[in-house]
Amino acid sequence: MNGGSHPLVTVPETALTRPPRLAFVANETATAQEALLRMQALYPSVPVEDAEIIVALGGDGFMLQTLHQTEGRELRVYGMNRGTVGFLMNGYEEDRLLERLATAEEAVITPLAIRIGTMDGGVHHALAINEVSLLRAGPQAAKLRITVGGKLRLDELICDGALVCTPAGSTAYNYSAHGPILPIDSDVLALTPMAAFRPRRWRGALLHKSSDIRFDVLEPEKRPVMADADGRSVRDVSYVEIRSHPTMRHRILFDPGHGLEERLTQEQFV
């Protein structure tokens, strides 16, 4: 064994030894666009198609938009609040981003797959991360028939509308309609009516996420109904079919101690 110097060993860079490839996206508000320029100046970034983590700058609506635009890729998305409510977002801070990403908690959510039939015979398909809602589109209340798992459950619901939400969406429109907040890891969907007239004081139902749910619109010419899936609307609806989409996954990152489960729990004690 000689005492000469040892050659340097070069360790190849891997996903475990280098920072993750980041892509920054932002909504169109001035606040979000200013944050986008600052973050891109502070941290190296790549196009969205080459990213491992997307940092979304905006509010909850923009987070949903970002998740929909990356459907099927299972990219991790870390939101920073440059909007209003920010339930799905983390606090905005320009420093320590890489440290925050390295310690972030991951929540995996699955969307709803929706099939919407219209009065002209058209069929529309959509995915909803938060909820799908049916809303009256005229002066008269909507009249809906509800079938779950192929069995008629309610032959006539007269209401302003009804929605089906995921646990992730249970604090959004569902909560405003006095629906329940669902634990993020529960295998449950909430079916919640809006301003139910008949049956009186019907509060809705909790359904297993594997349930096939169908709404048929009764008297659609007299009582027109529109359907909305995460802000994307279809008018003149004749029926809506809803089921969970277990093979589609969205991965959202949260700061430690501020994950989606904690937020859903905290919301119930406000």
* Largest sheet: number of strands, sense, barrel closure: 6 strands, antiparallel
Strand content: 35-45%
**Count of beta strands:** 17
Mean pLDDT: 91
Domains, number: 2
Distance between the amino and carboxyl termini = 71 Å
Order of helices and strands: EHEHEHEEEEEEEHEEEEEEEH
Shape: elongated
Which structural class should the secondary elements be placed in? alpha+beta
CATH class of the largest domain: Mainly Beta
Relative helix content: 10-25%
- CATH superfamily label of the largest domain: Probable inorganic polyphosphate/atp-NAD kinase, domain 2
Using only C-alpha atoms, the radius of gyration works out to: 23 Å
Number of helices: 5
Could you say what the CATH topology of the largest domain is called? Tumour Suppressor Smad4
Instruction: Report the uncertain regions.
Output: none
